[in-house]
From TrEMBL:
Organism: Chelydra serpentina (Snapping turtle)
Keyword Manganese set for record: no
Record-linked CDD domains: 7tm_TAS2R
GO CC terms of this entry: membrane
An MF annotation (GO) of this entry: G protein-coupled receptor activity
PROSITE patterns given in the database record: G_PROTEIN_RECEP_F1_2
Pfam families the UniProt entry points to: TAS2R (PF05296)
Name of this chain's protein: Taste receptor type 2
Cellular location(s): Membrane
Transmembrane residue ranges: 6-28, 40-62, 82-107, 127-150, 185-207, 235-256, 262-283
Keyword Transmembrane helix (UniProt): yes
Family: Belongs to the G-protein coupled receptor T2R family.
């Protein structure tokens, strides 16, 4: 029971941080769009990512609230099935959006002379809306088969309860055929593969640029190198969250874990949409500046002691 309470507290903190961080990205970028009637490609991806994660966090929150308030367990289990499908859709969608953000960084910062890469560098900002819409459709197609594969039913255990109290639970069961399993893994692994490719290209570009700078000026540090380094730091944080999230998600879906480890995987999955969004805010000067001003405003109230951070240049 104590372990469950601790994990519940951690999940609650992750949920609050995620809602605030992603809500900040949405409000700041939507306010800029209302004011100027346009958004950069980077801001469009950040806004879409924030929206998908914001609704993902609220889906988890609503699901937990329903378990506390609902008295009709049959309706609760039916609602849980709907929320589970929505959760799968939003999971895949935010993985795609985060991947396109990494690709955007790579194309804008890396330097390669290949015609395809040069074409992408010129067109990537204009391609962002199509990439986002394509990700939405791919995520929808990937999650729809799970509607029939997931079966959540109410199991009444009152007959086995010696104390006479009525007990019951929603039992989760997934009927994953081979084709559905392959489709699900493609949905989760495809954006990760694209992300790995973009990361390798960006690191290769940094290595080549550093070698070229050492030969010409004797130094490996310049503004382009700094841009590479900042982008790679963001990518490394993403790869850490993405790998841990992907592994936890696969184990969770295949139901290989015990109850205690099951809760651990939930915590790991909850850290990704919250922690990565915080890192994105700290790496974006506009979002970071708004967050600093918000913290400065909060410090005027009795709840003091919040730490402030100075803004600096980021990849976007």
């Amino acid at each position: 029971m104590f372990l469950v309470m601790i994990i519940g507290l951690i999940l609650g903190i992750e949920l609050i941080i995620g809602i605030i961080a992603n809500g900040l990205m949405i409000v700041v970028n939507c306010s800029e769009w209302i004011r100027s009637r346009k958004l950069t490609g980077c801001d469009m991806i950040l806004t879409s990512l924030g929206i998908s994660r914001f609704f993902l966090q609220w889906t988890i929150f609503i699901n937990n609230i329903l378990f506390q308030l609902s008295e009709d367990m049959n309706k609760l289990c039916a609602m849980t099935k709907i929320l589970t499908v929505v959760w799968i859709f939003l999971n895949i969608l935010n993985l795609w959006f985060a991947t396109w953000l990494s690709v955007f960084y790579c194309v804008k910062i890396a330097n390669f002379s290949q015609p395809l890469f040069l074409w992408l560098k010129r067109r990537i900002s204009g391609l962002v809306p199509q990439l986002l819409m394509g990700s939405f459709l791919v995520s929808l197609v990937t999650c729809l088969p799970s509607v029939n594969a997931i079966d959540i039913k109410y199991i009444d255990n009152s007959m086995n309860n010696l104390s006479g109290n009525t007990t019951g639970k929603c039992q989760y069961k997934s009927d994953l055929s081979f084709s559905l399993f392959v489709l699900s893994m493609l949905g989760y692994s495809s954006p990760f593969i694209i992300f790995i490719i973009s990361s390798i290209l960006l690191i290769t570009s940094l290595w080549r640029h550093s070698k070229r700078m050492e030969k010409t000026t004797g130094s490996s540090r310049d503004t382009i190198t700094e841009a590479h380094v900042r982008a790679i730091k963001g990518l490394f944080s993403f790869i850490f969250f993405h790998i841990s999230y992907f592994v936890a998600l696969v184990i969770f879906l295949l139901q290989f874990s015990t109850i205690s480890s099951y809760l651990l995987w939930i915590v790991i999955m909850g850290a990704y949409p919250s922690g990565h969004s915080v890192i994105l805010i700290l790496g974006n000067p506009k979002l970071k500046g708004v967050a600093v001003r918000a913290l400065h405003y909060i410090r005027r109230f009795p709840s003091r002691g919040l730490l402030l951070v100075d803004s600096d240049r980021g990849p976007c």
